[in-house]
Write a structure and sequence with these properties.
It contains 13 helices and 18 strands. By secondary structure, the protein is α+β, with helices and mostly antiparallel strands.
Length: about 600
Amino acid sequence: MNFKSFVYLLIFALIAFTLNSCGFLFPVDEVVEINYIDESASNVATANRFDVFHVETTSDYVNLKYKISNLYNNDVYFIFTNVSVDSSRSNPTVDASYSTNDAPVNSVRNTEDINELRVVDNYKAKEFNQNPSKFIDFDKIKSDNGRFTSRTLLNDYVGASQIFYTTNSTTEGVVRATCRSCREVTADMNKTKTLSIYVADNCWKTDGATDKKFYVTKEMVETLAAKFLSAGPGNDIYDWVTGIYGEEWGVHDNRYYIEPNDNITILLCDIEEDDVPKNSIVMGYFHSKDSLIKTEQTGFSNQRIMFYIDAVMFANHTTADGKPGDGVWQITDYWPQSTISVLSHEFQHMIHFYQKFILNKLQRSSEIWLEEMCSLVTEDFVSNKIRANGPRGVNYYDPTHGSPGNIYGRLPLYNEYDDDSVSTWLTGDDVLRSYSSSYSYGAYLARNYGGVGFFKLIVQSPFTDYRAIDDALAKSGYSDDFFKTLQNWGAAVILSDLAASEPYRYNSNNAAWMTSDSDKGVSYELGSINLYNYTRNGQVGPYIYKYSPVGLERKLRSLNSSSNRFYLVSKNAGGTLERTIKLDKNVKLTVVKK
């Protein structure tokens, strides 16, 4: 090295040292030593078929010496629950003497992308519904001194043509459609309602049409209309879903939204113009932008209480795996039947927006995970009424937990990712995991905390996050809170092959429905769930680790917020079992003996 190079190198080193000492370069995270407090706890197993022990600790960071005695040929499970709603936690460790074998009981988790054809919602519509102010400058509208266009009264009749905007844009997603059904009926509670069904012109069956694989016909439209709204009480999706949550639209004093009216519009179009997709499909969505009065900012509003259904998939008469079937469309075919379930799902979104956002005069509507949970459970509540298999994945007429090897519904994917966060909504292909977690948790709540009455309280609560569940629990007379339900849910997962009682009930283990009544006196029925009956990619039942040794935290993701992780600590144990467990802040331990 010559002298000049040495000088340059010395100068660079001095500059780097100076910057680093001032905190500008190469920052070093401050290492905070955590002091784990020694605590002990013990339980005595009973002769019952199972025991659940929620182990109480008093410190934030605990080195817990735990003992369970009186075991007799029992399996012992540890469930670790992160009760933080917004941050992950370090994985717990159990006994340094253990080996580092972290294989789960059932199989190795599949790490491939989730690429099967599954139903999802329109994420952009979700974002808008959750927080319209993110997209609309309401303060600017206020300063414009009411520069609203007058609302055009609906003039729907069969054959009427109209331009619809399917996104919050006037240049994208523009659809010309024709009204193919318009019915005014006296529905539940003697309310007169009008249902208008428009079909995109490029999705309507005409001679020589070849752009779409499947086209909508008059028979399909009238079948859909009858499923959603029919004359008389208690015989359609409208009656059954409003019977749980309340009206979809009505009196309000928000000057930016259309006035009360009794018309609901369904637009059948090829959502995303993807014909028959090969991956995830948006089969329907509700977009609250249509409830806005038109202004210079909101020219994309259709000024209707409406939602969107995918026309091609509704007309699709192939089987679930894409085989031709008998070639004749019937409402009982897989995709038409799925569309009926989607109708109830999207209708809950419509009601949710009015009940939560408009009536409570909130700045934003529910967090996505909470609202999706309500829609998924709505499908569950009305499954046997609308005669469509819902997210449970068992035939709508079957109240039992079904048969082993079940690959249908949302629960096979939940089993594979049963330690996902409930309160964090994933995106991209991973969003399917969030649907599965939200349904699993919601299905648990519905079967243990009052059914339809409890979910009505969630939807009508003025809270938009986990506190809506706390609010519903308190109003229903329960002492549990959201965090305790997470722990109870974890135990219910492990016990789902047994007939456990509340608050650990997934499975009645017999041929009887689990029922709850609305405040209108209508009974809703839920079937049993046995998570060990579901399989996906070779995994059978919940994803359960064998145990949690020291060092395992380096192999696993951290413990997600609002999540459970399951461990089989000992199989066929007898006598006394003792373990030392290191618990991070907000991590709770539940012990299940089977």
